[in-house]
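[step 3/7] fold_predict: job queued, chain A
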Amino acid sequence: MIDTIIFDLDGTLLDTLEDLTDSVNYVMGEYDLPPHTIEEIRNYVGNGAAKLIERAVPKGIDNPAYEKMLEMFRQHYAAHCEDKVAPYDGVMELLASLKAAGYRTAIVSNKPDSAVKQLYERYFKEYVQEAVAGARYGVPSTGKVVFGCVPCSVRGRLGSRYYDCRQCTDDLHQRYMGVPYKGTTACGGCRRGAYDYDCAGASSSSCAS
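[step 4/7] structure written:
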């Protein structure tokens, strides 16, 4: 019986695209580079801040200013991540109903850790038991690390068995993990469609006990 649900943040619970676009374009402006459209940024997000800036700036990680650009983005976004952000329609009602029904819930994201904590405090602390960021300095922030080891660790802290847990994220990460579709979730209007999958779907090499 499912008793635990782990949510992604960007594009699943919160529409953060405008703030991300603004912070990327702040960096672009500081380096006299042309701004990106929101649709361009939509196609760049999903793998953490470092990959976002790699995709947004000329020459990516080979750009001599890449590290400075990334740090500038992180600082700007930390200061402005609440400017235009909003939960998707129905998300807060969903989380309230899950809490009332006795489900354990958590958020796992590859956003910068400071932004995850900030947004959790503002929107979700009343309804969600825990929020964890995979994106911290020195910690890999994409793919099987965030959506494998970290959710399983969270699941353990919440006291849920792996087969009683579902993870709700966008299908980009779902496909990366190679986990079969389980059907559309009830969560907010994810940018590419939200699906849930069994936490047991992570391979044993990527899913820490």
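[step 5/7] annotate
Helices lie at 17-30, 38-44, 49-56, 66-80, 91-100, 113-124, 145-158, 171-177.
The first strand starts at residue 4 and ends at 7.
exit 0
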